[in-house]
Specification:
The chain is an alpha+beta fold. 35% of the residues lie in helices and 20% in strands. The chain contains five helices and nine strands; from the N terminus they run ββαβββαββαββαα. The strands form three sheets. It has a five-stranded antiparallel β-sheet, with helices on both faces. A two-stranded antiparallel ribbon has the order 1-2. Strands 8-9 form a two-stranded antiparallel sheet. A hairpin with a 2-residue loop joins strand 8 and strand 9. The chain is globular, with a radius of gyration of 24 Å.
């Protein structure tokens, strides 16, 4: 049966997407991608927090491991923040709750600037590009480790008990995800995380 010239051809096009007729040419309106919408959410959070538009947005993923998070650095003149997109609400709630809790205890964690849990997005303080491992890699010659690295490692090791003991006393363990305690199963998951 020949196609009806008065009816738009919609084969392969989801019917929820509007079709416009213009001089017998049918144009499918493009919906923004989900990723694009989520990046717009980060732009909005940045602009609401800093009261300036985003100049630049750069992915920071690379060496950050196997996380499913999308991590980007958003900048404007004199302003910078890290934007996170992650669709697991419970894990986002746990991270945000713990970050705020540790910060109240004066521990060195990024400040949370803005949150949109409905879109799995949040904005946090940008602490720079250099990880402890990168600092070690850049300041090591064979077996020799530079004094800046030794100082940084000592500081990190001295701070860990404050997280584990001092801040743990009044931590809300009810928001832990996926389990309320770091038990045998959780240890097994961590040990096998990069195995496959």
């Amino acid at each position: 049966m020949p196609p009806d010239k008065n009816r738009p051809v919609t084969a392969g096009i989801p019917t929820a997407i509007p079709i416009l007729r213009f001089d017998d040419i049918f144009v499918r309106l493009q919906r923004p991608s989900r990723a694009g919408v989520l990046m717009d959410v980060l732009h909005t959070l940045f602009e609401q927090h800093f009261h300036v538009p985003v100049d630049r947005m750069v992915p920071v993923q690379g060496e950050l491991g196997g996380s499913g998070r999308k991590i980007v650095r958003l900048t404007a003149p004199g302003k910078s923040a890290i934007g996170i997109l992650y669709g697991v609400r419970e894990e986002n709630v746990a991270f945000l709750e713990f970050s705020r809790h540790f910060r109240r205890h004066g521990l060195p964690v990024p400040e949370i600037y803005a949150v949109d849990l409905d879109h799995g997005a949040y904005l946090e303080e940008d602490l720079g590009d250099t990880s402890l491992f990168e600092l070690l890699s850049q300041n090591r010659k064979g077996e020799q480790i530079g004094p800046a690295v030794v100082k940084a490692y000592r500081s990190a090791i001295a701070t860990l008990p404050r997280f584990q003991v001092e801040a743990a006393r009044d931590l809300n363990y009810k928001v832990c995800y996926p389990r309320a305690s770091f038990d045998r199963q959780s240890i097994s998951w961590d040990l096998n995380y990069f195995k496959y």
